[in-house]
Design a protein that fits this description.
single chain, about 400 residues, alpha+beta, four-stranded antiparallel β-sheet
């Protein structure tokens, strides 16, 4: 028996894990329930660090199957499933050929191929001009620097590719066949010009990056199609509208912030810590350039004027290091050990370049403390406490 109204399925993918979330309205309130969780495990190969998008896609199919089983058929326990949409992290992309075939596994923004690319780009386009055109913070993971690395390496993939899609747009393409890039994800690339509202193709041409790869930019809230028939059959679900949310996960988080008045500040704390405010138009001025503050698009043409801080990545990477050494610890256990450690013994700069790439994070924390003349954290609890207090 149906017990609720229409259901809406959201896939929220972060750098460490993903989840399928059902949402429905009860009166004026939105209720949610997580129906499927899954890990996001990057894969190192001989040519670099990649996202395992096929594994993520398989998990999303599983989440869709679970959601459909709950909302359709004689044993349904919730209302009819009406639509589906995806948000993910920003900056990373996939390349498709003219037939829509993935030409390579998407690279991870922490791959070392972007080392030195910012300096190379700024020799051609000075930083002040780059900021004036894009309003984006200069960071080594930006899409622009990833593409510049491919140009410098003479990658044949740029010649064979037909379309560039950001990661959430890749999943929406697999759902519908529609090739487009949602606005909020486009604004994380460092080649979207918010002053004129389009791709900065002249900028790309100066850097030798083919602008022909870029599809149309589509606003969040757009219905881009219906779930493909083969996917309906595979997941045993009815035709669904595929709707674009604010596909950059920080943008979706800010939309969901429980505020009703403008002028609020936010901290979105995850793998990255995003610290900023929502504004009706981009803020692009010399002070923003000097402070390296970025402008990222959001709902209804709004922007988030914010600073990216490295965030809980440091804790996540410590946890992986401890697991490789045979010590499996939950985040609750890490927090408890940190709470038991002495306060304010050492402070690190989370944005220091030593902490950006995957690897032995506890050793890097210790090395930073030695280099700066501070006490070296001794053990799990003091190391995690040092990270959290530093953030």
């Amino acid at each position: 028996m149906m017990t609720r109204g229409a259901q809406y399925l959201a896939f929220d993918l972060g750098a460490e894990s993903g989840r399928a979330v059902l949402g429905w309205r009860e009166g004026e309130r939105l209720q949610t329930e997580i129906v499927h969780r899954f890990p996001n495990r990057p894969v190192q190969t001989a040519d670099g660090l990649h996202w395992d998008v096929l594994s993520l896609w398989a998990e999303m199919q599983q989440g869709l199957t679970i959601a459909a089983a709950r909302s359709e058929g004689p044993h349904a326990t919730v209302g009819r499933l009406a639509s589906v949409g995806v948000d993910t992290w920003g900056s990373d992309f996939a390349l498709l050929d003219s037939h829509g075939v993935l030409v390579a596994n998407p690279w991870h923004y922490r791959d070392e191929r972007t080392d030195g690319m910012q300096e190379i780009v700024e020799q051609i386009v000075p930083r002040a001009e780059l900021y004036a055109q894009t309003g984006n913070q200069s960071m080594r993971q930006n899409t622009l620097l990833q593409l510049m690395a491919m140009v410098r390496q003479g990658s044949p993939l740029l010649e064979s590719a037909h379309t560039l899609l950001m990661i959430p747009d890749l999943f929406h393409f697999w759902m519908t066949g529609a090739r487009s890039v949602e606005f909020s994800s486009a604004t994380t690339t460092q080649f979207y010009n918010p002053r004129v509202g389009r791709w900065a193709t002249d900028l790309l041409a100066r850097l030798g990056i083919p602008g022909r790869l870029l599809p149309a930019i589509v606003a969040p809230g757009t219905r881009i199609g219906t779930l493909a028939p083969w996917l309906q059959e595979l997941c045993a679900c009815e035709p669904l509208d595929v709707m674009l949310p604010v596909t950059h996960d920080t943008g979706s988080a800010v939309v969901a912030a429980p505020v009703t008045e403008p002028g609020f500040a936010f901290i979105s704390s995850g793998t990255w810590s995003l610290v900023g405010t929502e504004v009706p138009a981009p803020v692009i001025d010399p002070q923003g350039l000097a402070l390296n503050i970025t402008n990222e698009g959001g709902w209804n043409g709004s922007y988030r004027f914010l600073k990216n801080v490295l965030g809980l990545w440091l804790v996540q990477e410590c946890r992986r290091t401890y697991a490789r050494a045979g010590r499996q610890l939950t985040y609750e256990e890490l927090t408890k050990l940190a709470a038991e450690a002495p306060a304010l013994q050492s402070i690190v700069d989370p944005d220091d370049g030593a902490f950006f790439a995957p690897g032995d994070m506890p050793a890097r924390i210790a090395a930073y403390c030695r280099r700066t003349g501070q006490p070296v954290p001794d053990g799990v609890g003091p190391t995690v406490r040092c990270i959290l207090e530093s953030l």
